[in-house]
Design brief:
It is built from seven helices and six strands. The protein is of the alpha+beta class and about 300 residues long. The chain has two domains: about 35 residues; about 190 residues, Outer membrane efflux proteins (OEP), CATH 1.20.1600. The protein has a four-stranded antiparallel β-sheet with strand order 2-3-5-6, with no helix packed on it. The protein has a two-stranded parallel ribbon with strand order 1-4. A hairpin with a 5-residue loop joins β5 and β6. α3 runs antiparallel to α4, α4 runs antiparallel to α5 and α4 runs antiparallel to α7. It is elongated, with a radius of gyration of 38 Å. Keywords: Signal. This is Heavy metal RND transporter. InterPro entries: MdtP/NodT-like. GO terms for molecular function: efflux transmembrane transporter activity.
Length: about 300
């Protein structure tokens, strides 16, 4: 039974207005999911998309943070401002109740041991360099994993096509052996052998299918997709490898070695920072007191 109350009528009208919006949102989400599930990719497209891997984004943020920290570490610490009251009565907080009551304002600046800030900034810059090399190493590793999984999926696809054809031939062989056995021209062992050959092909198909599923799942994970993409079943064009002498010349520029060298340099600088920490720091402070200038001076503290 419908109610004719104004509030109920207004709610029904609002719900009728929200139904098309909700249906459109559901259809758009399902359409995006279907489009993503049916994404067709080549290896070049996949290598381009792998640059958006979350682990690489984490490295980028770490590098940015270390660079900002290096700039801040090389600067002097912030000065300290102090406010105080001397001989101020706490019953009414009146400055005129006692002649000795006065307010003071102080400013102090701390100077770390000489050269410590420069060394600390250099250490953080080396750590940022090491993180950048580690990011390049991680990108190369992700690309290698993607290529390996892609080749595995392509090999499984081609092997599956061959096994399907072999299974058809094995089924025909089994049917021929069965017909020959019924006609008395073959033994029962021939039928069993043909049947076992077909079953072995089915088992091999299941194994290849599972390996292909694992390869597709790894590709989906590396690319950050919600569903396995549709691969272009075409072998990628691989450029011939460079000469051995050129590969040997490129060894010092490998990201792994660069990251290790940068980390070693950062560790050496951190030892120097620790040695400088044994030296005393200097704090310079000045204060002004009023309303009468009773205490104004410059003091040094170690």
């Amino acid at each position: 039974m419908k109610s004719n109350h104004p509030v109920c009528t207004r709610l029904r009208s609002q719900l009728r207005g929200l139904v098309p919006v909700a249906l459109a949102a559901i259809l758009s989400v399902s359409g995006l999911a279907a489009a993503e599930a049916t994404t067709t990719l080549t290896l070049a497209d996949a290598e381009h998309r792998i640059s958006k891997n979350p682990s690489l984004a984490a490295y980028r943020q770490k590098i940015l943070a270390l660079r900002h920290q290096a700039i801040a570490a090389a600067q002097l610490p912030d000065p300290h401002l102090s406010l105080g009251a001397v001989d101020l009565p706490t019953n009414n907080f009146s400055m005129n109740q006692q002649q000795m009551s006065m307010l003071s304002v102080g400013l102090s600046q701390t100077f770390p041991p000489f050269g410590q800030l420069t060394l600390r900034g250099r250490q953080l810059r080396m750590e940022a360099r090491a993180a950048s090399a580690s990011k390049a190493e991680r990108a190369a590793e992700l690309r290698w994993l993607l290529q390996q999984s892609w080749i595995q999926a392509l090999v499984g696809h081609d092997e599956m096509r061959i096994l399907v054809r072999q299974e058809q031939l094995a089924r025909l062989t089994e049917q021929a052996a069965t017909a020959a056995y019924r006609a008395g021209r073959a033994d029962e062992a021939d039928v069993l052998r043909s049947r076992l050959a077909r079953v072995a092909l089915e088992n091999e198909k299941d194994q290849i299918r599972s390996e292909q599923t694992v390869a597709l799942a790894r590709i989906t994970e590396l690319l950050g997709l919600s569903a396995p993409p549709q691969l272009v079943w075409r072998w990628p064009h691989a450029a011939p490898p460079p000469a051995l002498s050129l590969l040997i010349a490129r060894i010092p520029g490998q990201p792994t070695l660069q990251a290790a060298a940068a980390n070693e340099g950062a560790a050496r600088v951190s030892v120097q920072v620790a040695h400088r920490s044994l030296l005393p720091s200097i704090t310079v402070s000045t204060s002004y007191s009023g309303p009468r200038i009773l205490d104004k001076g410059l003091s040094y503290r170690l």
